[in-house]
Every structure is written in structure tokens, then in C-alpha cells.
Amino acid sequence: MLGVIRIAFRNTRRQLRRAVLLGGAIAFGVMVITLLNAFTSGAVANIKNNLAYVAGGHVYVIGTELTESGREVTRIGDDQALQAAVDEADPRIVSVHRRSEVYGSLIFRSKSVMYQIEGVDFAREAQFAKGLAVRSGSVDDLSDPRALILPARAAERLGIEAGETLLVRLQTVTGQENVGEFRVAAIIEDVLGFGLTAAYANLAYLNSLIGLGPSEYQMLAIFLADLRDIDTLAREIYQALEEAGTPVERPLSQSQSYQELEAEALGQLFGQAAAAIAKEPWEGTKFSVITLNEMMEPVVAAMGVLDSIALGIFLILLLITAVGILNTFRMVIIERTREIGTMRAFGMQKRTVRSIFLWEAAFISLGGGAAGLVLAGVIAAAVSRISFNSPGLEFFLDAGHVTFAITAGDLIGNLLVVLAISLLAALLPANAAARLQPAKALGTHF
Amino acid sequence: MRIRAWDSVSTGALRAAWLLGKAWVLAAAVLIVAASGASAAQPDLVAILRAIDEQSNFGDFDFSAVLTIITQDPEKGTEKFVVREFRRDRENKFLLLIQEPKARMGEGYLMDEENLWFYDPESRKFSHTSLKESFAGSDARNEDFTQSSLAKDYRPTGYESGSLGNFEVYIIDLEAAHNEVADPYLRIWVSKDENLILKMESYSLTKRLMRTALFPNYVKIGSAIIPRVMVFVDELVQGRRTQITLSEISLNALPDSVFTKAFVERANR
Fold first, then answer.
1. Do B176 and B245 sit in the same domain of this protein?
2. ipTM of the complex in this document
3. How far is A210 from chain B (nearest CA, A)?
């Protein structure tokens, strides 16, 4: 066996130019598929992280109540059932955040900018503000009910500095216009550069402006240690709420009108839910349990399409390469007919002759595949060092950088596909070589 | 002597009593007259609101007009929109179709009874929106283009008489009757002779002045009287205002198809 491998390796080296050309084609294909796979995986991971940051968690429980006129408003008034359903001491849970949210117009003199404002119970979430990257001002004392933590981009747009006062025009949960006055306690760095970093205000004060009671909130957001627990935990919360007899919306994935519910849930999550008339009235708070994975499904599907396109390109390239291997090996057999005849005359078995050619194909494909991986690695390393400032791209990026992520399984899988197609292409000429009669082969002249 | 004295005393007392009584009668008469005068001047505020609502309603007629909306923004500069409006008040329907600027041409707001839809010609999709939202980023709200419903949505909390320019007006303070109207508090200047709102101030829940609307020019069309020019001044963002001018006003009947999603999709194609 070792002798066969040695002969095959020697043959490959003998026709190095031809091997490099074939290997180069394979390398290009492997490089393309690896880069695209790694890019889509990296982008999905980045979108997931960015979305978790924007939405403030991995699992979200949103409450909806009915007004006297039967309109739906986002509000969690009585949260006893929810508190019982979410065990904050659960080791899977990193942190739990109670939030009220509103999309309002921040106004300073003649300038205004629309921004998401989240109400945070700073006393209860003492660590939250300390985790923010403060550019100016301070988050040490947020006891002033009108304190506002403002993202740098908003501050720059308004031309406002820490310590100054601004107005916020917003709507209550029932759609009434209201105006609140805030003092900028601190200006923080935008983690996401395109305006998706929220401004943070005191929960009770924000509640008073949007028509909620001081201890009420709209959403409970949960951060988990391991993202693989997202679906399990969401299911557990849903079941606990259902068993407690609380009105609870079916999980999105179980709903018939998935897209409709998803749009509604996303609207609620980002504080843009229109006060629609409820179709079926209920008592108290109705909860909806939404997960990051559910929100990511359209993104994952879109990235899946990109992956499929990449796979298509890869297979076409491989097909072209396979035709190249087939033709090259047929030429090689013609060139080496006398050599094959000599080896066969000295007693080499048909099977061994076939193996030599198949090993040659394996060397070329694995060599090309390895070169493609190295090339992909170099390009990925170079591209990931570039900082992109395009606002349209930032959701796909990790702090402005493209991330490439690929599993060892995917790499090995791609290489195995290359190897299998190359061997398949080489099989026909290898069989033809094995079938050559020694006497006839030795008598052939070119 | 005693009798005389008594007589004299009683006569004096009677005179005094008579004089006092006369004074009381006079005072009472003055009070009654004053009170009745005051009663005659007390306006029926709810009736005024009802009159305002009624004269902004086209009833059995369809209404169409071209709106020229000019917004002055200290940051964005001046923006001009030309919008065609179609209204059918009896069915609570309206359609606003943007015709200018070119970049926004084809966008539409379709009110179909309870639902207000926004149509985006780029994505060719309708999305749900609200009457309380700003119209195309201007200081006008979608509800500013619909019939007035002050009597239903507000209750008067006080008034005073005054003047605005050459007009004698009632200055009426209104409070929202429920929490689903955009403006929690209003102050309106209503002309005494024709019940026309000449000025309106909108206040937030925290009672901060947010917007002043001026209606300097009205036009009578059919039985309705509607403002031909509306000026909205943003009281929170310094220097921001929007002026809306109506032209090509008509009460001609409109086909039912105008108030449909299909029409909005076809329009300006």
C-alpha cells in the first residue's frame, strides 16, 4: 500500500504543472465555499448578538392588556404569575430586566431626533448602568427621576452635553401626546452605531409619561448564559403561565398566522405596537413569550439561501474541475501506456494500477482543498481587520468588523465532497488503465 | 303725647322700613337684571363644539381637493408636498395620495372605517398606521385631514370672551373625554358669529404647549365651512412650522373604487 502511495505521489510531482492547474481550480472552489459559509455563519452570529443587545435579552415576555374601549395596550400591571413563572435564581439565567419602552422625539432647541427610550429601574438593576461605556457625564447617581442616559450619536445630532436638559415628545400607551423633560446624566458610546443603542431613563418617570403606573412595565427580558437554553426556557415559562391559568399567547412557532404574530410581536418589542382592537377580549394581562431564535428565523432563512447559492457555485466549479480531472487522466493514461504495460508485465495487479491513479486524484484534490482553506483563512483574516463604517452593514458586523465563523465539521465536509467528486472523475480513466493488456500496452507507439 | 311719640316713632320706623325695602327691591332688581344678562351671555359650549363638527362634515357629499403642504424645518430646510385628498364623511373614509415630491409619489394613506393604511409603492405593501401619527413628517397629523369630532372627544372646562385680530371670539378650554385622542388638552379660539376655529393650541398630558394651529382663511363649500389655509407651528422645536393650502376643492361624487386598496396601488403607476 505504501509503495502505491509513493508511486502515486512521485507521479503527481512528475507532472507538477498539470497538478497545480487542477489543484488550483479545486482550491478556488474550496476557498469560495469556505469564505461564504464562514461569512454567513459569522453574520448570523453577529445579527443574533446585535439583536439580543437591541432587544435587551434572549427571551422576552411581553404583557398586553385591554383598555375600557377594548383596545390593546402593552402593559404588565399584575406580574405575580410572571414572577412565579420566571425563577430568577435559575442558574441558566444571567440577568432579568423589567422594561418600559417608547419611541420618542428627543428635542433640544431647534434640533430633534427620533430615538428608542427604555425605562430602567436603576435601583433594582444597580449593575446595568455601570456596564455602559460612558463618554461624558456620570452614571454613579441616577436618583434624579429625570436623569437620562443618552447614546453619543443622539447627543451629537442634538448638540447636547451632559448636564443639559432636553424635551421628549412621545405617546402614551393609548396614543395620547405627551412631553417630558429630561436631564442628560451621561452620554454613552453607541455599541451599535446606527441609532439602535437606546437611551435609558428612570422606569417610574418614563411610566408616568406613557400612562403606566410606577411599578408597571411592558416587557421582561431575560439574558441566558448559554444560547442553547433559549427555546427550553421559553417553553418552561409558557407552560408555567398556562398552568397558572394566566392568558398567554401561543408561542410564535405554534401559531397559524406566524408572520402576522411575528410582526405584531416585533412591533411590541420595539414599542411601536398600534393600539389595535382586540379580537377576543380577556381579563388582566395576557403574556406573549418570544425568543431571539424566533426573531432570527427570517434571518437564518435568508442566510440559508446565500449558503445554497454558494453551494451551487461550489458544485459547478467542482463539476468543471471533475471534467478537467477526467480529461487530464485520460491523457495521462495515453502518455503512460507503455509504463503501465511494463508495470503490469512485472506482475502489478489491475487493482494496484487503479489505486495509483485514484491516489494521484486524491493528492491533487486534497492538496487543492488544503490550499483553498489556507487562502480562505488568509483572506478572512485580512478582511476581518478592516473596519466598516457603513450604517447599512453594521447589524451584520461585530463592532464594525466582519466576522468569519465555520465549524470543523463544515470544513471536513467540504473537503470530503471535493475528494469524492475527484475520485469519481478519476475512476473511469483509472479503470481504463487497469484494464490495459501488458503486451498490447508495451507495443503501443506514440 | 305718648301716642304722638309712638306715632312719630312708628311713622319714622315705617319710613325707614319703606326706604330699606325699596333699596332691597332695587338691589334685587339690579341683581336679577344682571343675572339674567349674564345668563343670556353664557354660551352653550357643547353646542358650539357640535356646530364646529357639523360644519366640517360634508354629509352626503364627497369631497376632494389638492393640498399643498410646505414644512419649514431648521435642520432639513423647506419641504414641499402636493397631496390629493378624497373624503367621504358619511362612510368615514378618506384617501391622501402624495403626488409631489417625486421621491414620495404614490405613497398613500387610506382610511377605511376603523383602519388607516399607509401604502408604500416601493415595497408595494400596506401597513397599519394611526390617525395620531404625523403626516409625511410634517407638523400636521393624519387626523387633521378628517372631519372634526370635538363634541364627542372633548368636554369644555372653561371659557372666556376675547378678541383675535378683528374677530370677537370665545376662548374655550377643552379636556379630552377619553384617553384615546392625541391631544389631552386643547384651547380653541372660536369666532362668536360663525363658530369658526381661528386658533387652536394643543397641550400635552403634562400641560406643555406642543403645537399652535392657525386657521386664517375659511372657504364655504356646500353646507360645510372648512379652513382653506392651515398653519401648524411646532412649539417644541424652535423654527418648525407647516402650512397647508387647499385648492381645486370639489364636492363632485367620487366612484366607490377610490376608497379601495386597489385604487391606491394603481394610482400614479
1. yes
2. 0.77
3. 9
